[in-house]
Amino acid sequence: MSYVFTPAPVPALAVRGTDATFPVRRVYCVGRNYADHAIEMGHDPDREPPFFFQKNPDNLTTESTFPYPGRTSDVHHEIELVVCLGNGGADIAAENALDHVFGYAVGLDMTRRDLQSVAKKMGRPWEIGKAFEKSAPVSAVVPAAKIGHPAEGAIWLKVNGEIRQEGDLNQMIWKTAEAISYLSGLFTLSAGDVIMTGTPAGVGPVERGDSLQGHIDGVGDLTVTVS
């Protein structure tokens, strides 16, 4: 097979402690998956069915700088547990869902909040606010074989040394296994799929020059500078 032009490289994440990389196929994001964040965004935190939006695979970046994007004046940080699937399927049972996980990482769902807010008011998709270039800085992936499947533990984000977001993985409304199971009823999942599992309360704006330090117990750390 010949291509009319050279295909873009496959987006990939580093795997901690190895020279291997994790190739990214699709990126799914769980919306409003912490009750306190749902409240701060003006929604009822009751356990309604989960909803998902997507970023593009090449939105993920392992670079230590986040370039402030254009056409916005209100970019927000959202610290998240990132789930990386090693195999997939359709209609995966929740009790078997964690068997499909290769590993976990720390990620940021950077959001052009002003553009997202306009899209919400007009009933339009969110991609303009969510799926822009380098909008998802991600740490190296740590294999589940090394750390198990984190279900509790601190998740926090500091901006210039001050805590902005703070929560616990056990506060997720839809746990990792449940999110995988539900999502697999909507899409056929596959190895290389990435799920960003939502963010705790405290989201807020960043400015050029800010230093963002994220942490999830048992998973790792992520440091990004806004440029």
TrEMBL record:
Pfam families per UniProt: FAA_hydrolase
InterPro entries in the cross-refs: Fumarylacetoacetase-like_C, Fumarylacetoacetase_C_sf
Domain of life of the native organism: Bacteria
The Fumarylacetoacetase-like C-terminal domain, residue ranges: 27-226
Keywords associated with the record: Hydrolase, Metal-binding
MF terms in GO: hydrolase activity
UniProt cross-references to SUPFAM superfamilies, sorted A to Z: FAH
Keyword NAD applies: no
Listed name of the protein: Fumarylacetoacetate hydrolase family protein
